Amino acid sequence: AQHFLTRIEAQRDLNAFISVDSEATLAQAKIADATIAAGQSQLLTGIPLAHKDVFVTRDFVTTAGSKILAQYKSPFDATAIDRLSSAGAVCMGKTNMDEFAMGSSNENSFYGKVKNPWDVTRVPGGSSGGSAVAVAAGLSLGATGTDTGGSIRQPASFTGITGIKPTYGRVSRYGMIAYASSLDQGGPFARSAADCALLLTAMAGFDEKDSTSIERADEDYARLLNQPFSSNATESQPLKGLKIGVPREFYGAGLDEEVKAATQAAIAQYETLGATVVEVSLPKTELSIPTYYVIAPAEASSNLSRFDGVRYGHRARKYSDLEDMYRKTRTEGFGWEVQRRILVGTYVLSHGYYDAYYLQAQRLRRMIAEDYQNALSQCDVIMGPVAPTPAWRIGEKSADPVQMYLADIYTLSLNLAGLPGMSIPCGFSACGLPIGLQIIGNYFDEARLLQIAHIYQ
Ligand code: GLN
C-alpha cells in the first residue's frame, strides 16, 4: 500500500484520483497484514485497488465527479465495494470520472481532466478514465468502473489495459450512484483477463438490496482460464471450435485505418489459434446512438432529481424560497453536460413528446437486443473495435457534444441489450497509442469471454 501511495503522489499530474486518504488506506492494509499473519488470506487479501468515485464508500469521500456531492461521505459501502473488501482488497483511493458518468473522455469532471499516461496531451477515455489510468500507470493493481454505454471498455482500450462489463444485473448497483439504471453495470479493470476474472469473482453476485440483481449462484470466473476451450483443442490450436462473428457494421465509414488494421490482425491471430470467423450483421448499429441518447438522459433526469440541496451535498447559499433554492443549488452544483442531459431527458419524457421519442427509443432498444440474438445464433462471440479511433487530444471534441456521442458507436448497443463485453489490448497506432479489441458474448458468458481473452494474452 505504501509503495502505491508513493506512486500515486509521484503521478499526481495525471489527476487519476479525486480522493486519496493514506490513513484510511494504511488502516485497511494493516487489517490485510493481520489476516495474512493469522493464515486467513482470502481471494484478494492485500491487493491494492482503486475505486471509481461513483461507488459510495464509508472510509472515503464520494463525489461522482460532481460539485453537488463535494465532501459527501456515505454511511455505508456500496455492495460491490463491500464484496471486494470482504475478499481482502485494500482501497487506494477514489478515482476521477466524468460527472455522474456522463462522458467519453473524462473532461466533464468538476475535479479536472484526467491525462492519458501514454501521451499526456490525450484523453484517457471515459467515464471511468481515472480508474483506467490508475491501472495503466501502475497506481493500483486493479480498479472498479461502471459501464452504461462503454465506460469500462472504452477507457480500457484507450489506456491499453483489460476491462470487462458483465451481464446487466450481475454486479449489484446498490450504492453505485445511478446514471441510467437500466443500463448501468459495474465491473473491473486490470492488466490482464486473468486478474479481471479474480476481481469479478469477488464483485459479482446476487444482492437483495438491488431489485434488478439476478438471482444466480456466485461464480468462479477464473474457472475456465486454464481449461481447454473444447474437446478438440490442441496445444497449437487452443481455440479450435470457437466461432467468431465480425459485424459488418463495425467496419464501415468513420473507422480509423489503424484501429481497423489492429483489430483485424487480432482476429487473424485468433484464427491461427484455431478459431473460425464469420461475418454477421448488427443492422441497427448506427441507430444505437440516438436510442441511447434518448433513454440514458431520460433515466438520468429522473435519477438526478434527488440532488435537490435538501438531502445531500451542496446547497446554494442565497435563495428567496424553496423553488429558488432548488434552482440555484442545481445550477451551481451540476456541470454543463449534466444540465444538458437533464434538459434532454425531461424533454423526451414530457407530455406530447414521450410517444415520439422515449417510446420509439424503447422499441428500437428491443430490436437492437434481437439483432444481437440473431448474430449470436451464428457464432459464439462477436469481435470488433471498441472505439472508432485511438485516444483523441484533450479538448478536441469537448466543444461539440455530438462528436463525443458519435465516438460511442461500437459500445452503446451492448448496454441496450444488457450483454457482457470486454476490451483487451490488441496493438498500437503508429504514434504509440493503445488500441483495444472488443469481445462480446451472450448473457452470462463472462467466464468464456475471460478464457478467450486469456488464451490470446
Ligand atoms: N459515453 C457514454 C455517455 O456519455 C457512456 C458513459 C458510460 O458508460 N457511463 O453516456
UniProtKB/TrEMBL annotation:
The keyword Ribosomal protein does not apply. GO terms for cellular component: glutamyl-tRNA(Gln) amidotransferase complex. PROSITE patterns: AMIDASES. Its EC number is 6.3.5.7. One of its GO terms (molecular function) is glutaminyl-tRNA synthase (glutamine-hydrolyzing) activity. InterPro entries: Amidase, Amidase_CS, Amidase_dom, AS_sf, GatA. Signal peptide: none annotated. Keywords: ATP-binding, Ligase, Nucleotide-binding, Protein biosynthesis. GO terms for biological process: translation. Residues 1-450 form the Amidase domain. The active site is at K52, S127, S151. It comes from the Bacteria. Pfam families: Amidase. Belongs to the amidase family. GatA subfamily. Allows the formation of correctly charged Gln-tRNA(Gln) through the transamidation of misacylated Glu-tRNA(Gln) in organisms which lack glutaminyl-tRNA synthetase. The reaction takes place in the presence of glutamine and ATP through an activated gamma-phospho-Glu-tRNA(Gln). Heterotrimer of A, B and C subunits. This is Glutamyl-tRNA(Gln) amidotransferase subunit A.
